[in-house]
Each structure stands twice: as C-alpha cells, then as structure tokens.
Write the structure tokens for this entry.
Amino acid sequence: MKLKPTPMCVARSFCLFVAMAMLVVSSLVLTHGWMLGHEATVRLVPEFRAMVPSTALCFALLGIAFLQLFLPRGRVVTSSVAWITGVVVMICVANLATVYVVGGSGIDWVFRASRFGTDRMAIMTSVGLIVCSACILAILTFRDRASDTMTFVALLGFSTSLSVVAGHAFDARSLYKMRLFDGVSLPSALLFALFFAAVALLQIQHDE
C-alpha cells in the first residue's frame, strides 16, 4: 500500500527544489556568464539588465542557507545559517552604500563586471535579498510554527517579483524607468518569485 505524500512533505520538497534552483542558476551566472564571458547567461536578452556577480553570489549563499534549514538542527547548522545570511546582508548594505552614499558603481568592480556594461545591484534586489535573509532566519527561529507576518511578507514578495517578471515580458524599458526597479534582472526576479512562493507555501502548511 503506497502512502500519499503529506502537504508538508510537498512543501519541503518544493523548498529543496527552490534552494537547488538558486544554487544552479547563480553558479551558472558566475561561472559560465562572468568567468567565461558569455553575456547571454547574465542578461538573457541584450536589452535586459544583467545579474551582477554580487547578486549571483548572494543567491548562491542564500541557496546554501535555505538547504541547511532542512538538515537536523544543531549548533553548527544554526551558526552556519546565521553567518551566511549575515554575509549576504553585508554585501547588500555595501552595495547600497557604495552606490547611493559614496556615489560609486557598487562593489562588482572586484569581479571585473565592467566588461559587460555598467549594471549594478538594484535597490529592490538589495532589499529583496535582505528580506530573504530575514525570512531564512525567521524560519530557523520559529521552526515549525506559522507566522502571519512571514506569510504576508512572502506573498508581498511573490506578487512584486511576478510584477517584475511581467514587466520584462511586456516592456522592460518602462520597468527600468522606475528607480526602485532599475537594474533588477530577470533571473533575479524569477528566483525571488520561487523563493517567496516556497516560504509562503511552508507557512501555509504550518498553519494547517
């Protein structure tokens, strides 16, 4: 007699898929795109914004942290998740400070990203990555308890990400004219949508 998968098993499986997607996509962007010099990998379409190296690195780190949430909890896992999310937040804050306080072009010059143009981590990308880090820490803290705030944040993030994906599909130039979304790449928007959908599904299953 075969056992049917429970809703929580489905939610966890989807979360693991999302974590792997974050790792695979960001690794491809970093290696095949930036290291090997294939521009199509970092921006998909010539007129789209590129996923810059710092953004890809942050998604890779968050993918690792997200995967660790489904390992047996212990001091090592807790410390690792906390350190990883802390590094992501620091990268985002450094990017924001470099661009909007100092007036520079972000920290991606370290990766020689200027060869593909002047793209940099967008404001909404930085905010989104910081929110993702907070969600991962909240899941680690609340464990198997549902949180209405987390559900709201996840649904808001999911709907915003889908709006950015739709903007790329219909009129990317108009999307980039909005200061908050200028610089948001399509791969970033897709990964944000997947991540927030996973968090929302996890919270909804906890609530049942």
About this structure: The two ends are 26 Å apart (CA to CA).
